[in-house]
Amino acid sequence: MSDKRLAVDVGGTFIDFVLLDEATGAVEVEKEPSLIRELPEHIFRGINRLAVDLSDLEMIIHGSTIVINTILQEVGGKVGLITTQGFRDVLELGRGNRPQVYNLLYKPPKPLIPRYLRFEVPERLSYKGEVVTPLDESATREAIEKLKGRGVEAIAVCFLHAYADPGHERRVREIAAEAFPEAYVAISSDVTGEFREFERTSTVSLNTYVMPRIGAYLSDLEHRLADGGYQGALSIIQSTGGLMSSEEARHLPIRTLESGPAGGVIGAVALGRKIGQSNLIAADVGGTSFDVAMVLDGRPFEKSETTVNERPVLQPTIDIASIGAGGGSIAWIDDAGGFRVGPLSAEADPGPVCFGRGGTEPTVTDAHVVLGRINPDLFLGHRMELDVDGAAQAIQDKIADPLGLTLTEAAFGITHLADTNMIHAIRRVTIERGHDPRDFSLLCYGGGGGLFAGSLMREMQIGQAIIPLNPAVFSAWGILNSDFREDAVRTSVMPTSDLDADQLLALFDALQEQLEQRMKKNAPGAEGMRLIHMADMRYEGQEHTVKVPLPPPDELRAQGIQAVQERFDELHQTTYAHSSPGMPTELVNLRMAAVLESKKPELAEIQEGSGDGSAAFKANRQVYFKDVDDAMDCPTFDRGALGSGDRIAGPAIIEEWNSTTIVHPGQLLEVDAYGNLIISEVA
Amino acid sequence: MATVSMEKQIDPITTQVIRNAMVTAAEEMRLTLVKTAYNPLIYEVQDFAVALLNREGEMLAQGTSLPLFLPALTFTIKSGLEKFGTGGFDEGDVMLANDPYSTGTHISDTSIYMPIFFDGELQGFCANTAHWADVGGKTPGGWCPDSNDVFQEGMIFPHLKLYEEGQLNRTMMDYIMANTRFPDLVRGDLGAQIAACKTGVNRYVALCEKYGAETAREAMELVFDQSEALMRRMIGEMPDGEWSAETSMDHDGIVKDVQRKIKVTVRIEGDEATVDFTGTDETATGPINCPLAASRAAAEIAFKSATLPHEPANEGHSRPLKVISPEHTITNPSWPAPCDSYGYAALIIIDLVSEALSYAVPDRTVAGEYMLFGAWFFRTDPRFGKPFIYIDPVDGGGGASSFDDGADGLIFHGDGDAPNTPVEVAESRYPIRIERYELHTEEYGVGRFRGGMGTIRDYRFLTDSVSTQVANEQTKCRPHGLHGGADAGINRLWVRPGTEQQEIITERVSFYGPFVTNDVLSCRTGGGGGFGDPLERDPERVRWEVLNELLTPEQARESYGVIVGEDGDGDPVIDLAATEALRTERRASASA
Fold first, then answer.
1. Which of A160, A336, A403 is opposite residue B423, by nearest beta carbon?
2. Which of A90, A91, A98 to mutate to test the interface with B (most CBs of B within 10 A)?
3. B518: closest CA among B470, B466, B471, B469?
C-alpha cells in the first residue's frame, strides 16, 4: 500500500475529488456532476478517472450532503417516536414562536413523525435525574408492537430529562432489540446530552429519520469500493469538520448534517496555520450559495445548535452563514421597481444565459462576462464557450431598459448588489459575535472566489484577501486536513460557586469515558487523543450562555475555579459588549471534544517568478471597472505560469482552468511561496 | 469621467444599496439591544422594537421585533418633533418617552431615541422601545388590569432629555432609579437601549460619509415612493367596497358588568384604504383603552399581512392607509384615561380588520385567533425560598384561512417571535413540575378549514405560597370564524383539576392564590376560528385527524357530517356514501 489519501467532497452541483500522494505532496484533482439519485455510482466513476489503484489508497474521506438532502426533500424513513407520558406533542408544538412576524398566515413545517406514530409511556425523571415514576416496561412493549404493526422501520426515543440519566431510554432500546430487532433505534441521550426537550426530540427524530437512507447509501458505497479492491476505512466529515468512521455515521448520521460546507473551513484553518494567518473570514463563493465562516485564533467558530428548515438540531457545528448569492444568482426587478439580485439562482441547469443551455434570466456571471472580466473562451478550461451576446441581450432587456440604465451600468449594478448581499452575510458572522471584520483577512475560494475577493475587501476595508491554489476544489483539499473528532455534552445546571477545580473536572469523567469508547471505534489502537474541556456559563438569572474553553486540567487545578470565572467575564465582554465581574455565575452545559490528529498534507512551494509576472502575461483585454463608460486596457495572466514573489498592480485579471481572479485598479497582487494569490490595497 | 453615482437623479443601484444598508443598520441595532439587555422581557420574550427614522419621523427601516411597536415609534418621534421642533435637538441628546398619549402603547414600554447629525444638520432618529422591568406604578412589572387613570400606571416621561449634548442629567437618573422596583435591571436595560441607538447613529453617519446625506435622503424618498406605489397597486387590485366587523370585550377591568364594543369598518376606494373605528364605545373606566397610535398600528399589521407580509416595512407602506377614530373612544382615548391593558384591544383590532378584509381578499386573511392568555407565577415571600416570577408565553390556536387549517399551538400574533419556555428549562429554574404539554383537542372553531388547536399545560407546584396573575379576554364574545366557519374557543385556567377543590377561571385577575405544594394548575388555551362551511371539509382531512386522535368518530359525524368506520387493522376509513347522504340531509334541513 502506498501512502495515498483521497478526498471525495459532494457539493450541490459537483463532486470534487482530491488525491494526495503523501510521499511527494502532489495533488491530483477531478470533478464529476453530483446527481443525487445515483451518487455512489458517480463517486465511483470519478475515482476511476483518477490515476489510482483503489488498493493503493490508505484512506478515503467523504464530505456528504446526503443527510441534509434527505431532510430537506423529506425522503427519509417511516419513523415512530416513544416519549414520556403527557408529552407526545412536544415535537409538533415546538417553541410556538412566529419567525414571520407580519404574516398572519404563517405555519411552521409539519413534524416528520405524525401524531399516530408518537406513543407515550409512563416514566418520569426530575431535572436532577431522580426517578419520579419508574419506566412502565409493559406499556413500552405495547408501544413497540403498535409501531411495528403500523409499519415503521425506525424508532426514536426521547424522555424528559434523559440527559440527566439515560437509564430509561437505554432500557427501551433493549426492549426494542428483543421485540423488533430489525428496526433502527436511536435514543436522545446518545445523540445529545443537552436539555430542552423540543430541540432534543427534534434532533433524535431527524437522526432516526435519516438512518435507513444513510445506512443503505454507505453500504452501497462500501461494497463498490471493496469490490474495486479498496481495503482501507471510509471516514465521514462531521458538521464540526472532524472525522468519524462510517460505522459511527450509521448510528449518528445527524452529526454529518453540515458535512458539505465544513471542508472549506477546515482547509482555511490548515492554510492559515501554514501562512501565519490565524484570523480569517472563510468565504466559499459557489454557483448558488455564498457560505461564510469565521476562523478566530486558528480555530473555526462553532455553534452548538443549528436548524434545518426550522427544525432544530443540537449538535456542535461550524458556524457557517449561508445566503443565496453566487455566480448563478438572478438579477430581477421587484414589484415596487427596485433592483434586486438573488436569492433565486439559475443553478447548474439551465445556468446563466452565457452558458447557452437555455437560461433566459440574467445572472451575476453574465454581468461579469459583459464587463469583460471572464474570458469567454477559457471558461472551465475550454470545456465551454460562453455566449457573450446572449448575456448582454438578457441584461439589456431585463434590467437596463426597464431601469433606464446603459448595459454596462446595469452589469456593474448586478455585481455591486451581489457584493452587498455577501457583505451582509460577512457582517452577520463577525459583528453578531462581537468582532470587527477589518481585523481579519478574507480567504475566498470556490469557483467564484477570485471574482469577488477584490471588491468585497475594498467595500469592507479589509486589509488583505487570499485566493488559494485550486480555489474551485479547495473544500475537498480542506477535508484532507481533518482530524478524528468526537464530541459529548451534558447539561448540569449549578452555581459555579458550589465547585472547586477538582469537582469541576470530576464532572467531565463520564464524558471522557464516553469519548474514549467512541474514539476506539473510529481508530482502533490509536494513541494520543487530545481532550478539550468547555463549559457553557452565564450570569445567574440570564438565559443566554457563553461557551468558555477551560485550561488543561493541570493548569485549571493550579489556577483554581476563579480563572474560569474571569475567562467567562472576558468572553462575555467580547460577545455582548458588557460584563459584570463578581456577579454570581452558573454552569449550564459541560462540553468535551476528543481530537485524534491526522497527518496533514504538505504544501509544495512553487518556483520563483520573474518578479513582475511577465512570464505569465497572456494578452490585454478590454475590461470595465468602476468607470462604466470606458473599458480599461487590462492585462491578463495565466495563473499556472506565475511564480512566487511575483507582484502585479491592478487592474489585472488572473485566469486558471476553472476560476478567474480580478485585481481592481489601486490593488496589488502578490504571489506567495505556495502559489496563493494575496491582494492588498496600494494606498 | 462618468461613474455610476449620478448627480441629480439618484440611480437604482445606489438606491438599493442604501435601502439594504438601512435594513442592516436596524438589524444591528436589534442585536445590540438583545445582547446587552438584562431583562428577560427583552432577551427572551422579545418585548421591544427598534427602528431608524428620517427627520420627519418617517420609518426608514426596522429590526425584527414586536410588530405592534413599530408604527408606534413613528408616532413617538413625530410627537417629539412637535414638542421640540426640528431645531430643538442637539448632537448627543438621548430622549426618554413613555407617555401613552405621545408613544401610543402603554407606560411600561419606554422609548429611547437619539437624533442623528451629519455636518451639523439633523438627518433623522434612531429609536427603540422596550418593556421595562418596572416603571413604578401600582403593579410590579406593569400590566395593571385595574387602574383608573394613567398616573397609577407608573412614572410618566413626556419626551425628556436624559442626556443633553452627551451630558447625563444625574438628577433625572437618580429620580428614575429611586422610583423603580428593579433599579439594576432598569439601569442595565437603559444602557442597552442607548447602545442600540448609538449603533444606529454610527451606521447612518457612515452611510452619509460614503454617499452624502442628500443622496441617502433621496434614495429613501425613492424607496418610500416605490413602496407606496406597490401598496397602492395591491389595494387597487382589491374590489371597492365597505365591510364592517365588531366584537365586545368582557369588561374593562373596573366596571365588570358592562361589555365594551369595538367596531371596525374597512373601506376600499380605488388605491386607498380607510380603517374607521366609528361605532366603537366611548373611553372605558378601566385600562383597556388603546391609544390611537396603537389602534393604527394594529390596523397596519392586518393590512401588511394581507398585502406584503415579507417586505421589510417602511413609511411608504403606510401612506395609502387612512385610520379614523372618533375622539373619547376605546380606540382613541383622551388623557388621562388608563390604558395599561391596551394589548387586548390591539389584538382584537388585528382580528377585526382581518375579518373585514376577508371579504375583499379571502385568500390573504385568517379567522380570529386565540386571545392573549397568561398565568404568571410568582412567589415573593422569602420565607418560602428565593422570590421568583415565571412568565411563560402560553401558545394557542391560529385562525383558519380560505385554503388551510389554522396553526396549532403558536404564540398570538401580537407577540412576534417569542418562544415558550422548555419544560426541562422551567423545571431546572422554578419549583414546579410540568406534567403535560399537549394539543388541546377541543375549543377551536370547526369549518371547511378548522381553527388551529390550543394547548394544555399542567403545572404542579413543588413549593408553598405561589400566586398567579391571569391575563384573559374574549370569553363572552369569542374570536370570530369566517364565511360559515365556527367561532374560536376560549382560554381557561383549571385550578386543581379532578379534585374536590376544582375551579375553572376564565376572568382576568391580578392576584389569585396562594397555592400550596402539590396543587395543580392547568392552562388550556383556545383554538382559532374556522373558515367556511364544516360540511364542505375534505373527508380525508377528517380521516387523518381521527387516525391521529385529534377527533373522535362521533365528533367527525357531529361537526363535519363525516361517517368514519374502521378497517381490518382498526384504522379509520371514510364511508363516502353515508357521508354524502348525511351531508345532503343536513344541508336540506339547514335551508328548510
1. A160
2. A98
3. B466
**Four-point Cα dihedral B398, A92, B308, B483, nearest 10:** -30
Amino acid, single-letter form, for residue A55: S
Closest CA to A49 of A228, A267, A227: A228
Please state whether A298 falls in left (phi above 0), alpha (psi between -120 and 50) or beta.
left
Put simply, the answer to whether A412 touches B13 (Cβ < 8 Å) is: yes
Specify whether the CB–CB gap between B453 and B410 falls below 8 A. no
**What are the angstrom distances between the C-alpha of A325 and each of A290, A295, A349, A431, B17?**
5, 21, 16, 20, 15
Question: Which chain B residues are within 8 Å of A578, Cβ to Cβ?
Answer: 36, 191
Do residues B100 and B339 touch, judged by C-beta distance below 8 A?
A: yes
* Closest to A1 in 3D by CA, of A16, A30, A17, A22: A22
Rounded distance between C-alpha atoms, residue B312 and residue A336, angstroms: 12
With residue A237 as reference, give the H or E element that holds it.
strand A233-237
For residues B549 and A458, what is the distance between their CA atoms, to the nearest angstrom? 60
Q: Which of A101, A118, A406 to mutate to test the interface with B (most CBs of B within 10 A)?
A: A101
Which amino acid makes up residue B300? E
Give the residue from A81, A103, A104, A332 with the most B CB atoms within 10 Å of its CB, the best one to mutate.
Answer: A104
Q: Do A544 and B398 touch (CB under 8 A)?
A: no
User: What is the maximal distance between C-alpha atoms in chain A?
Assistant: 82
Q: How long, in residues, is chain B?
A: 592
**In angstroms, what separates the C-alpha of A382 from chain B's closest C-alpha?**
33
Residue A562 CB neighbours (<10 A): 11
Q: Among all residues of chain B, which has the CA nearest to that of A402?
A: B12
Nearest to B418 among A97, A544, A575 (CB): A97
Query: What 3-state class would DSSP assign to A27?
Result: strand
Place of cell 376560549: B490
Residue A481 and residue A459: Cα distance in Å, rounded?
A: 32
Cβ-in-10-Å burial (0-12, 13-18, 19+) of B566 comes to: exposed
CA distance to A86, A148, A179, A199, per residue, from A168 (Å): 16, 20, 16, 19
Per run of 10 residues, the mean pLDDT along chain A (length 683 residues) is 83 83 82 78 88 89 90 93 98 93 91 97 97 98 97 98 97 98 97 96 98 94 93 93 94 93 94 95 90 94 92 95 89 89 84 90 95 81 78 96 94 94 89 85 94 95 95 91 94 91 93 92 83 92 85 92 93 79 91 91 89 94 88 94 96 91 97 97 85
**Grid coordinates in use for B549?**
386522535
> Which chain B residues are Cβ-neighbours of A161 within 8 angstroms?
424, 427
- Which among A114, A412, A493 has CB closest to B548? A114
Taken as a whole, chain A contains a residue count of 683
CA distance A196 to chain B (A): 6
- Asked whether A530 and A596 are in contact (CB, 8 A), the reply is yes
- CB contact under 8 Å between B424 and A420, yes or no, is no
